[in-house]
Amino acid sequence: MSLPEFGREVIGWGTGPKDAKQRLESIQKSDLREIQDKGTTLAMAEEWQAFYE
User: Fold this and answer.
1) For 2, 11, 39, 50, which has the most beta carbons within 10 A of its beta carbon?
2) pLDDT tens, 8-37?
3) What global pTM score does this model have?
4) 38 within 8 A of 26, measured Cβ to Cβ
5) 38 neighbors 10 (Cβ within 8 angstroms)
6) Range of the domain at 30
7) What pLDDT does 25 receive?
């Protein structure tokens, strides 16, 4: 999965730091089910987290 696909289509954070910050501040626990339904695993999330750190 490409970086843009993961960010926009799975996490839903749009483009750029402003959109990412807005999504980070608005994400709800209920959003996790939808993210998981799109095929995201804990391992994938941890890999992307490491990338962004």
Assistant:
1) 11
2) 888 888 888 888 889 889 999 899 999 999
3) 0.64
4) no
5) yes
6) 3-52
7) 92
Tallying the residues shown for the chain, one arrives at: 53
Report helix, strand or coil for 27: coil
Are 23 and 31 contacting, i.e. CB atoms less than 8 angstroms apart?
A: no
Calpha distance 16→42 (Å, rounded): 24
Contact 24, 30 (CB under 8 A): no
Q: Are 13 and 24 in contact (CB under 8 A)?
A: yes
The pLDDT of residue 3 is above 80: no
Number of domains, the chain: 1
CA distance 30 to 51: 25
Q: What does the block give as tokens for 18?
A: 């402003």
